[in-house]
Amino acid sequence: MPDIGSDRAALARLKPANAAVTQERPDGGRCVRLLTNSGDRRRPVEEQQILAAWHQVFLTPFDTSPEFVGDGVGTLIAEASEPEHLIVRTGCATGPVRVSLVARTTSPQAGLESVGEEPGPWEAREEVSLPITRPLFWSSPDPGPDLPREPAFIPQVPGPHRVRVSSRGRNRAFDEAILEPVEDYLVQVWPELAMRGPEVLRSDQAPF
What CATH number belongs to 4-202? Predict the structure, then answer.
């Protein structure tokens, strides 16, 4: 049986920060450290492009490929064969999409995500719980040679995590093969003491 007291103590050691810094990377990209909500810690937020395929991008442990086993409770997060795998369903059939990930210590507060909301509101938003014990990496069914080499998320407290996926633009080029990105995805991850069921917070009525 898990030691809940130890889990609480571990969560408490993740301290908040109050800085917002933009850094230039050697490859010309930008790594942006954003000011988080109260009770959160500083986390790197980096916008990257991932090549979607078969309407999917993945967030998984290294060198693994999740299996799509069915629709989730909505159209944004699909059900994967392995509990530690996240499958995000894209509007385009294939092509680049923009993704960002925010590592948090607490759940986001509605209406306080103005930095991550630019340049427009999120059209779809769903949540799911994952038992994350290893670093997670961006991937897809046909990732190509340019996948990020660094993990997108490293759990500070291995165990149950809540994952919120927000998206916009999925209906702009639905079921098309695209060359330039028209879709944006924000993934927010934070530790929790127990697993919870999936939830649809907002729908964009994508015609899956």
Answer: 2.60.34.30
